[in-house]
Amino acid sequence: MRKIFSFMHISLDGFVAGPNGEMNWIKVDEEIFDYVGKRISEGSTALYGRVTYQMMESYWPTAADKPTASKHDIEHSQWYKKVHKVVLSKTLEDADLPNTTIISDNLLNSINEIKQQPGGDILLFGSPTATHSLIQLNLIDGYWLFVNPIVLGQGIPLFVDIKDKIKLNLLNTRQFTCGVTELNYIVDGQ
């Protein structure tokens, strides 16, 4: 069975975005881009909420075509164009969306069907609302948390309304020179 891994930047106090969705506090550099590029190459499906998908769709399909495109822009644009995208949305319609599946209802069964299909990991990028929904249904198998050296004090938390404990096993950690630390967890029993 395929596994879903949540890939998320997070503040030291547990927020994934500021109160208005701000993400300008996230630290990224070439070292992180190279590391993430290698990690995501193991995934064959990208999972997004509508807002994150629309943000990604507005940039990545043509990012490599820009004259100022960085190495990361070129590599991630190529990956983004070939990866199958699954979007959780009650309002988005899938007419003319290449290589994209929209899930608007019956989330548990729809995601479990995708997990049963052959392929690599399913990577959930950002998307706090989608992440919250999947956590509630116990559909996330692991977390790649990129802890940024900042305390926001308020914002959108990663974990909300948790009804049952989620026991995690730490697989590894990695310290980046910019001060970000990755914590790689798998859900206990996965």
UniProtKB/TrEMBL annotation:
<protein>
    <submittedName>
        <fullName>Dihydrofolate reductase family protein</fullName>
    </submittedName>
</protein>
<feature type="domain" description="Bacterial bifunctional deaminase-reductase C-terminal">
    <location>
        <begin position="2"/>
        <end position="180"/>
    </location>
</feature>
<dbReference type="InterPro" id="IPR002734">
    <property type="entry name" value="RibDG_C"/>
</dbReference>
<dbReference type="InterPro" id="IPR024072">
    <property type="entry name" value="DHFR-like_dom_sf"/>
</dbReference>
<dbReference type="Pfam" id="PF01872">
    <property type="entry name" value="RibD_C"/>
</dbReference>
<dbReference type="InterPro" id="IPR050765">
    <property type="entry name" value="Riboflavin_Biosynth_HTPR"/>
</dbReference>
